[in-house]
Amino acid sequence: MKPVSVVRILGIETSCDETSVALMEWPSDAETPSLLTHEIASQIEQHRPYGGVVPELATRQHMKHLDGMVGRTLSAQGWQTEDLTCVAVTMGPGLASSLMVGTAYARGLALAAGLPVAGIHHMEGHLLSVFLGSGCAPQYPHLALVISGGHTLLVAVLEPWQYQILGKTRDDAVGEAYDKVAKLLGLSYPGGPEVERRGRDGDPRRFIFPRSMLHSGDDAFSFSGLKTAVRYELEKWPPPWNDQLIADICAGFQSAVVDILVGKCLRVLQRTHLPLLTVSGGVAANQSLISALDKASADMGVRVLSAPRQYSTDNAAMIAHAAAWRHRDGVLDVGPSDVMPVWPLDALNRLEPD
Ligand code: KG4
Ligand code: ZN
User: Does the pTM exceed 0.85?
Assistant: First the structure.
C-alpha cells in the first residue's frame, strides 16, 4: 500500500484591506483539502473615517499584522515553516503596495525554509471559493459570476484552469457601485452590507433606477450610470434625508443591481446550457442577490452554488484552497515572479503545467 503523504499549504492574502492567513492540509488519501486555521485582520476601522481604502494605511496595517499572524497560525498547529509544502500568496490583481507586503513576506519565508512560492490569482481564489468547505471537488463545466469591489466577471469555466471571460464591467465594479452609493447616502464603509441592510426596510418600487446594459445584446456590464442616477435622484431631495428615503433608495438601487446580474446570468445560461452557476466575491454575501439568482436559475433547472459567507469577502483560505487544487493537478507553478496589480484572469490559460 502506498504510504499516505500530506500536502501542507500556508495561504497569505494581502491584496487590498484584509490581512489574512490560512493553513490547509491535504493527506493523499483524502478527497478534498481541509482548512485547519484561518485568520483575518480586518482594516475596516482604519479606513472607515476616509470612506474607502487608503493604500498607504493598508500597507502599514499588513506590515504590522502579517508576521504575527503567520507565527500564531503555524504554532497553533505545532508546525515549523519546514513542515510546509509551499507558501501560496496572492500575486494580483490588487493594490500594488498591499500585494508587495504579502509577496515579499512569502518569498522571505519560503527562501529561508527552502520552499516554493505559489503565486495565486486573487479572482481564481474567489471563483473556486464556492467549493471551499463543501467537501466536494470543484465541478466543471460551470458559469462563474465573480463580483467584488474591483471586478465584475462572467466566466465560462468549461475545464479546470481555463477561463473564458464572457463579460466584464466597462466601468465600475458591482461592489464599487455599492460602496459609492453608500458614500452618497452618508452610510458607513464598506457600503455593500450597509446598503443591503438599509434596503430591507425600503420599497424597491418607489425609485426605479436604470437597468444599464440589461438589453445590450452582449454579456458586458456597466454600473457607473446606475450610481449617477442615484446621485441625480438624491439631488432632488434636500438633506437631511430621513430613514425611509434612505431605505427606499437602497432598495431601488439593489433591485436594479439584482435585475442586471440575474438578467445577464440567465442570458448566458440559456445560450450555453451550462448546468451550474457559481457566485463568488464580496458581493456574493448579498442575500437578496443570491435568493434572486437561486429562484431564477431553479426555473431553468440550473444549480446555484454561492461562496459561504465567511469566504465571500477577501480571505487567505480561498488562496490556500486554489493552491491546493493546483498542486493536486500539477499546475501550481503558474504565478509570475512579481506582483501583478492588473492581471486578467484568462492570462492563466496560457500558462503551461509544470
Ligand atoms: O471580494 P472583496 O472582499 O474585495 C475585493 O476583492 O474587492 O469585495 C468587497 C466588496 C465591497 O465593495 C463590499 O461593499 C462588497 O464587496 N460587499 C457587498 C456585501 N458585502 C460586501 N456588497 C453587497 N452586499 C453585501 N452584503
Ligand atoms: Zn476580493
Answer: yes
